[in-house]
Amino acid sequence: MNAMSSSTKPSPAAHRHDATVDWPSWQRFLLGLVGLGLALLLALEATVLRESGRFALAIAAAVTALGLAGAVAVGTVPYLARRTALSRLMVRIEYEFTRAGLIYVVVMFSIALAAVNTGNNLLHLILAVLLAGVLVSGVVSRLMLQGLEISLELPEHIFARRAAPARLTLHNNKHVLASFAVTLAPPGAPRRRNGVVPDRQVLTEAVFWEYLPPQSAQARHLELTFPARGRYAQEGFRLATRFPFGLLLKARHVPLRREVIVLPAIEPTAEFYEVLPLVSGEVETPAKGRGHDLYAIRDYHASDTARHVDWKATARSQQLKVREFTREDERRVILVLDAHLASAAAADRARFEKAVDLCACLAWHFYEIGAEMQFVTQTSETRMGPSSAVIYPALERLALVEPSADAGLLGRLPLTAPGFRIILTGRARGSISSGLWSTSYIVFFDSL
C-alpha cells in the first residue's frame, strides 16, 4: 500500500513542469484548431451544397464557416499573441545596398528588361538565379546577426589622455550556425563622414570578427584613450555584416548600457613644478618621526637601528651618526577648489581646466607620500582621512566638477583648520580675507 502511494505521488520535477506549462494558452490553441477545422469542413460542405442546387443550405454553411473563422480570429489569435514573447522573435534589422549591390541590381534589371522583350528562356533562368542570390544574401546575413551578444570590461579607474586597457567580447549563442565577417561599432559610426566621430562615447572605433564558431566567444583587447575628463556613456552597439556576397549591409542594434567616469589626467605640468616646492615647504612638519624626509643628524644611541646610520657623517666626524626623519603622520592637507568663475569666456574656462588638472596632480602627490587629505568644493566635501581612502573619491569629484554660480565657498571656510589648506580659486587677488590668506596657500586661476 505504501509502495503504491509512493509510486503515484508526483515528483518535484513534474510540479515544476506543470508550473511552466501555460495550460490556458494550450486550451485556447486547441479550441482554435477545432474551430478552424470545423470552418474548413463547413466551407467544403457549402461548395457541395451549392453545386447540388441547395443554395439556402449552402449559404447557411458558408455563413457558419465564416463565423467560426471570425471567432477564432477575434478570440484566439490576439489572446495567444499577448501571451507570446514576440520581442524574442522579432529583431529589428536595418539593411542597405552596398555599391556592389547597387551594380548587381542594375544588371539584374537590365537582364529582366531583355528577358521580357525577347522572351528568351535562358535570360529568364539567369534572372531567376540573380533574384535567388539577393534572397540568399538577405537570409544568410540575417542569420549571421542572430544569437550574438556582447560584453565590455573596463578598468576600475580611467585617466584622461592615458591608454586604458579594455576587453570587448562577442558571444555566439547559436547552437549550429557560425557567424562570419561581423563588425561591431558604436551607433552611427559606419555612416560618419569627414572623420567626424560622436563624442562622449566609450568606444569610437569599429572592431571586426572574421569567424565566430557556434556556442563560443572571442575577445578583442583594446586600448581606449579618452581626450578629456568627464562622464562617458555607451547606449549600445551596432552589429553589421556583408556576408555572404557583399550585396547587402545588414545591421542590428545591441543594447549595452555602460557609463564610465574619466578622471583628470595626472600629468605634472610646469605650473605643478612651480607650486610643489612652495607647498611642500609649508606642509612639511618640523618634528622628528618615521618618515622619508631628513629631519636631523644626531649621535648614535644604543636603541637606534643600524639602518639609520649615516655613514658619510660618521666618516667625517669619526663618531657614529644616525639620521632622523620627519613625521609623515602629521602631514594633513586640505585641498580646496573654488569652482566659481566670474565669466564664461573661453580663456577663463581654459584656466579652470588647468586648475582642475593641477588640483588632481597635487592630490596624487600627497597620495604618493602618504599624507592625510581632505577635498572641498562647492558641491561636495570629503572627510579628512588617509589619502589612500580619499584620493579616488576626490578625483571622481574633480572629473565631474563644473564652474559654479556659488561665490561663497571661501567665506564658509573656517579660519582654523586641522591641516594645511591649499586653495585654487578664480577670484581676484584682493578679494581674499587676510585671515584666510595667512593660514592657506592660494593658487589663482589667472596665474595658470
Helices and strands, with pairings:
Blueprint: H1 2-8, H2 12-20, H3 23-51, H4 55-75, H5 77-82, H6 86-89, E1 94-97, H7 99-118, H8 121-145, E2 148-153, E3 158-159, E4 164-172, E5 179-185, E6 207-212, E7 216-224, E8 230-241, E9 248-263, H9 270-283, E10 288-299, H10 311-317, E11 321-326, E12 332-337, H11 346-368, E13 372-376, E14 385-386, H12 387-400, H13 409-412, E15 420-425, H14 434-438, E16 440-444
Parallel strand pairs: 3-9, 12-13, 12-15, 15-16
Antiparallel strand pairs: 1-9, 2-4, 4-7, 5-6, 5-8, 8-9, 10-11, 13-14
Task: Give a written overview of the molecule.
With 448 residues, the protein is an alpha/beta fold. The protein has 4 domains: 2-88; 92-263, C2 domain (Immunoglobulin-like); 287-329, no CATH class; 331-447, 3-Layer(aba) Sandwich (Rossmann fold), CATH 3.40.50. The chain is built from 14 helices and 16 strands. The protein has helices at residues 2-8, 12-20, 23-51, 55-75, 77-82, 86-89, 99-118, 121-145, 270-283, 311-317, 346-368, 387-400, 409-412, 434-438; strands at residues 94-97, 148-153, 158-159, 164-172, 179-185, 207-212, 216-224, 230-241, 248-263, 288-299, 321-326, 332-337, 372-376, 385-386, 420-425, 440-444. Strands 1, 3, 5, 6, 8 and 9 form a 6-stranded mixed beta sheet that branches. A 5-stranded mixed beta sheet has the order 14-13-12-15-16. Strand 15 (420-425), helix 14 and strand 16 (440-444) form a beta-alpha-beta unit. The longest helix is centred in the first third of the chain and has 29 residues, at 23-51. The protein is elongated and about 135 Å long.
